[in-house]
From TrEMBL:
InterPro entries: TFIIS_cen_dom, TFIIS_cen_dom_sf, Znf_TFIIS. It is found in: Nucleus. The keyword Magnesium does not apply. One of its GO terms (cellular component) is nucleus. One of its GO terms (biological process) is DNA-templated transcription. This is Transcription elongation factor A2. Residues 75-115 form the TFIIS-type domain.
């Protein structure tokens, strides 16, 4: 099954009208049959598709970093990675109630995360 999927992927990429460079490189010998057999979908993608994927990855990273748990902003903590003091923290009772709360801290500058009790 894996072999069939890989063959289908190669055929699809070679037939793609938006990716004539791949087809041209295979036909002129710049890409050997051995190379195309082991290429990933990222390597076969057109430049346009690579840019779209890169932009989508950047956007997903940005959204993930912005999706903070709505904690409080403070300058009480110093980031161990970038040494800045702009942080957001939340406190959660992760263990039994007779033990201290766990504090989760996120650096607003570099996105570094850490926790302590």
């Amino acid at each position: 099954m894996k072999y069939k999927n890989r063959v289908r992927s190669r055929i699809s990429n070679l037939k793609d009208a938006k990716n004539p460079d791949l087809r041209r490189n295979v036909l002129c010998g710049s890409i050997t049959p051995q190379q195309i057999a082991v290429m990933t979908s990222e390597e076969m993608a057109s430049d346009e598709l690579k840019e779209i994927r890169k932009a989508m990855t950047k956007e997903a990273i940005r959204e993930h970093q912005m999706a903070r748990t709505g904690g409080a902003q403070t300058d009480l903590f110093t980031c161990g990675k970038c040494r800045k003091k702009s942080c957001t923290y939340t406190q959660v009772q992760t263990r039994s109630s007779d033990e201290p709360m766990t504090t989760f801290v996120v650096c607003n500058e570099c996105g570094n995360r850490w926790k302590f009790c």
